[in-house]
Amino acid sequence: MVRFLLRRPIAVTMVFLALMVFSLLALTRLPVSLLPPIDVPQIVLKVSYPNSSPESIEQNVLRPIRESLLTLNGLEEMESKAGSEVGTIRLQFDFGTSMNLSYIEVNEKIDRLTNSLPTDLPRPQVIRINTNDIPMVRIQVIPKEGTDYAEVTRLTENVLRKRIEQIQGISLVDINGKQERVITIAPYKERLAALGMTEQNIINAIKSGNQDLPGISVKDGQYRYYLRLATRVDRPEDIKALPVRGPGVTAVPLGNLARVEYEMGEALGYHLFGQNEGLVVTVHKQAAAKMNELMEQITASVRLFETDYPQVSFAMTQDQSTLLRAGINNLQSSLLFGGMFAFGVLFIFMGNYRLPLIIGISLPTSLLISFLVFYAAGISINVISLSGLALGLGMLIDNAIIVLDNISRKRQEGLELFEACVQGVMEVMSALISSVLTTLAVFVPLIFMSGVSGALFYDQAVAIAAILFVSLLVAFILLPLLYRVLFASKSSHFLKEDSLFYSKVRQMYKWAYGKVMARRLVNFIVLLALIPLFLGLGLVMPTEGLPPIEKTDAVMEVDWNEPIGVVENKKRIRLLIAELDGEYVQAEADIGLRQFLLFDGENSVQQATLYLDFLDSEKKDDGMEKLEGLMAQRYVSAVVTIRDAPNAFDQLFASDRPLLEMRWKDLHSKKPVPSEDLEPWLADLPVQGWTKGPGLQEESAVLFRVDLEKMSLYGVPMSTLTTAIERLFGQYSIDEIKHFSEVTPILLAGNKADFREILRRNELVGTDDKSYALENFVKVSYEDHYKYVTSDKSGIYQSVEFTDRESTGKIDLLKTWAKSHGLSSSFAGQYFADQENIRQLMSILGVAILLLYFILAAQFESFVQPLIVIFTLPLGLGGALMVLWMTGSSLNVMAAIGLVVMLGIMVNDAILKIDTINRLRQKYGKMSLGQTKEQILNKAMFEAGEVRLKPILMTSVTTILALLPVVFSSGLGADLQRPLVYSVIGGLTIGTLTALYFVPLAYWFLTQKVVVK
């Protein structure tokens, strides 16, 4: 096939040009994202039920919803959490479940439950989670001094949101910090009492004067008109003019009986940018959109907003496209440095500029054609797939070097140019195909991991497979074609012999080879003994998900753990920001309830999240340490979590699950165990170092107890009492004004006095038409109660959490403790997920080794020789672990990817070495010049070492040098890639020595008794 294609250079050239044209077209249509569009198998239901206790929300709302959702297809776990006024249900599905269908099914079940849920309950919000829900950027909208906040809210919601949504590729624009204008009615109670009226007279007047007649029409001759009552109100002035009638008096304008005015509605949440209150807009992209282009359009739009709306300040924060740019920059630097170092190494080793030129053409060609495979496979350009391309580029250089070196060697042996190109390719073709297959055999099984990790590895595996197979196409067809064109006018004498540098290197290799082979058995045993020593480093190294990235931003999440309102919450956050003034670059905070549609976390007026961006990591550490000290000093009861600000990777991989959580249920009462009973039990818990789970956390509450005897004695109906309490302490909605899409509530003004004063100063009317102070019928007390009610599939549970790994070995003791107190126990936590991941990795590793063995056995036509390649892998792993340990790195996702890449390159070198030894043994065996089999074996091993010395050294040196700049670089991309680089450099350093010396030793040991055919 190679001979046939090389005889048709014009046709082959046209085919490659056509492929490149189609690849360019595909590249323009490929979506550009930060992460692959993964459907995370989770759905979250959020419930908002104002003025309701956790027990009420659990019993009346969450429990019926949970029971109806138990039959969902693919449901793996279900957990709910009821708090004051809010509740959440988190559904976890098996990975691979169709989340589109599950989302529809959940909504259908919620709709069927509508009649079973409280009538005043807003419909539960169903949130589906995927990687595109992570916002690209946050746009701060801050009203300038003197600007009406309600007008800015309307501007943001009705204008800015729509202008951003009109950008092609935007899927959702989410807003937090909105505040609406309301009309408040504050009755003059003295005037009402003097006229014998009550607040109900005012409420009735407003409802009567704000009626409409939808759908009613009147006929006027041949015409028909829709009827509209002229009494409908639109403004506070209209409400003031409404007549209010009382007993025995004429109608009085409502404006004389109550204060009517616009006010800002009571907010349950705020957003701060620095010290300024404002709104924040989060922008989400469509799966098929290009993030880098979208960011340019969004930036341009914000500049236009600044010009069009001078009464508002704008800023862009938490731009997630920096990760994508880091990935693109890494790919560009890999391509640039790879080409530069390949040129330099080839020139040093071979002293000819034409060979680096060939590689310079083949690298971008292979990369471009790989994007055509992306398009066919439906893969987007994202950080994961780009990292796969960057890794594959190193192997692509290796293939190119091996092919070019072999063709050059054939030319130096005296073969004619065309024949040298053909035989140079044919001789290494099977070995290179095997090396690509073995690399994929090591890497591709990782896509069968469950969960998000497997889905992410899919994109990387496709990227690596694409560039490797394209590299074979280029190496077998384009490289020999380019070689033939560039060297057509030159004879074999033009090709320079080995450079002086390489001659010295070869002499050193021969000397070392002689020393190693002089004591073969001893050296072989020593190398084998190093394997467990090297691998033992992996047991003492720390493990983590992502490598530690030098970040300049951090987040503080706080639960004040006190019954404070959202205004006090905002005041405290402002004081903290003021304490750090001048130390941060940007600060923003989400306080209280979040209005984001896609917010799936806890919502409470007592919680806040403070984001701070500093000039550098040192200032960040100092600033957050100061902040932590302030919190510990001023707010002892607050629960504070300080961590680096999460990027898109963190938000996808991070888990807030404890290491180990022990859950128990009281199967008799099916209710939480009371605190007074549980406290002495927990004192006897057999494992130390635990913290209370959400179901054990307590908070103080005011309890109103109604004196039913007095109410009966004075003839006060219960409905009168509850209505009075609702009006006095809640936000009592009288009616609302609708004007197109704008809705303005009409509210009875709330009383901002102390609740005891309110009870003392307000009265109820009995059956004898006498008034009695409200405090006569209500007894006030304080009590502690559970802050949350937690449940799973089988009902209400309480829990304690452990962070010490020693606790995982005491599960049986904990079960015995629960049983002794009549409790049913179960266990959950990250520990079990980690154990499952380890089991999966071990089984996948076993499958990868088996695939590796099968491919090599087919390549070498031997059951023994594949073991040589497999034995080289632990030495390479040991070298990588040693460098990671010496540099203080951890075992993380990027280090693991580096290990896989390094093993792929090591496998290539070992395969080529063994393949060459086999061919030379066959060649010298057929010649049979009176030599013994031992002599033939030694000669084949020595000559194979010389033949493959140059490509082995060049591939290793070019890969190491191409990656070396990352070690000395800074920034997000370098921080992510550094563990990968350490793995590859360490593994290849040891792996090169392994290919040069361990492979011939192992070959001699395993095959010295094999008969040469």
Describe the protein's architecture and organization.
The chain has 1013 residues and is α+β, with helices and mostly antiparallel strands. Among the domains are: 2-32 and 323-545 and 834-1007, Multidrug efflux transporter AcrB transmembrane domain (Multidrug efflux transporter AcrB transmembrane fold, Up-down Bundle); 36-130, 2-Layer Sandwich (Alpha-Beta Plaits), CATH 3.30.70.1430; 553-646, Multidrug efflux transporter AcrB pore domain (Alpha-Beta Plaits), CATH 3.30.70.1430; 658-697 and 794-828, Alpha-Beta Plaits. Helix 2 crosses helix 11. The chain is elongated. This is Cation transporter. Keywords: Membrane, Transmembrane, Transmembrane helix. It comes from Echinicola pacifica.
What's a concise summary of this model?
This protein is of the alpha+beta class. Helix 2 (9-29) packs across helix 11, helix 10 packs across helix 29 and helix 13 packs across helix 28 (893-927). It is elongated.
